[in-house]
Amino acid sequence: MTHVAAVAVGFLLDLLLGDPRGLPHPVRGMGALIAALERRLRPAFPATPGGARAAGALLVALVAGVCTAVAAALLWLCGQAGAWLAFAVESVLCYQMLALKSLRVESMKVHAALTADDLAAARGAVGEIVGRDTARLDAAGVTRAAVETVAENTTDGVVAPLLFMGLFGAPGAVLYKAVNTMDSMLGYQNERYLHFGRAAARLDDALNFIPARLAGVLMCAGAWLVRLDARGAWRMFWRDRRNHPSPNAAHTEAACAGALGVRLGGGSFYGGRLVEKPTIGEATRAIKADDIVRANRLLYATSALALLVSLALGALVAWAWRAAS
């Protein structure tokens, strides 16, 4: 049961500390490893679509294997020194795989700039957390981008890591985060990464398949907890959860749009090119800056429910191990 307690402690540490800037973080190490392997593997394979796919698949196997093995070995070595040391290190690892507080902090910077009527600062703040072009966004566009990233990242920043922690402990969360980081760096539909990043994108889609859908359901329940429109959340979740090029991204966006009564999605500019996407939700009213605050309330409620699911899964796994032995 120690890994279950480590999940709970890690969650509390994230609530309290977030991601202090300037301190070492495993995800930055993952990013450096991915970039280094890309530089070495691309020239080692033929400059063909098949060669790029093979190089990308090898990169995925190496990064996922190395990161997971390092986490497992670290916990094993700490366990040899003492159970309390292993527990402390696993708690810290769990904490570092979560992004609950940092997601709120960064999105609320956008809210602060919007409420101060500083559109330039709002564009700059939202540009730190989204991949789209922000220079031409108006206040509504900035707000929509911030709400969308809070909703979408509820899955890969909180719910999915918690599920992997509950089932497999900190090494499971590290594996998930390594794959998710590879997807964020390599999973682009452009000339450079269309083939090289395919394995990372597909594995990320596979690992997020269940967490994304569970996150959508939990967000609908969370809407009721924080007194948003739970009925609207359920309706939009079932209606619009497939309205996205990604098979996983729209589940929480649809639930969030329904809970807030706003329309998300639609076209956005990426690298100077307009990318048309389906809309999500109904515009029962105009989106406004305070919807960022409401989205964060929904994020926290959903995360609390996901923590309960994670702890229950962890307890079930612990019981199964004891029964098997």
The gist of it:
The chain has helices at 2-17, 26-41, 49-81, 83-96, 100-115, 119-127, 139-186, 198-225, 230-240, 250-260, 290-324; strands at residues 264-265, 268-270, 273-275, 279-280. With 325 residues, it is mostly helical.
Task: Give a structural overview.
This protein has helices at 2-17, 26-41, 49-81, 83-96, 100-115, 119-127, 139-186, 198-225, 230-240, 250-260, 290-324; strands at residues 264-265, 268-270, 273-275, 279-280. With 325 residues, it is mainly α. The strands form 2 sheets. A two-stranded antiparallel sheet has the order 1-4. Strands 2-3 form a two-stranded antiparallel ribbon. It has 11 helices and 4 strands, in the order ααααααααααββββα. Helix 6 packs parallel to helix 7. The radius of gyration is 20 Å and the shape is globular. Helices cover 73% and strands 3% of the residues.
Q: How many H/I helices?
A: 11
Structural class: mainly alpha
CA-CA gap between termini: 15 Å
The largest pleated sheet is described as: 2 strands, antiparallel
Order of strands, widest sheet = 1-4
- Which residues form runs of ≥5 with pLDDT under 50? none
Could you say which overall geometry the principal axes of the C-alpha atoms support?
globular
Please, what is the average pLDDT?
Answer: 93
Overall strand count: 4
Radius of gyration: 20 Å
| Residue share in helix | over 70%
Strand content: under 5%
Q: Topology of this structure?
A:
Blueprint: H1 2-17, H2 26-41, H3 49-81, H4 83-96, H5 100-115, H6 119-127, H7 139-186, H8 198-225, H9 230-240, H10 250-260, E1 264-265, E2 268-270, E3 273-275, E4 279-280, H11 290-324
Antiparallel strand pairs: 1-4, 2-3
Helix pairs in contact: 1-4, 1-7, 1-11, 2-3, 2-7, 3-4, 3-7, 4-7, 5-6, 5-7, 5-11, 6-7, 7-8, 7-10, 7-11, 8-9, 8-10, 8-11, 9-10
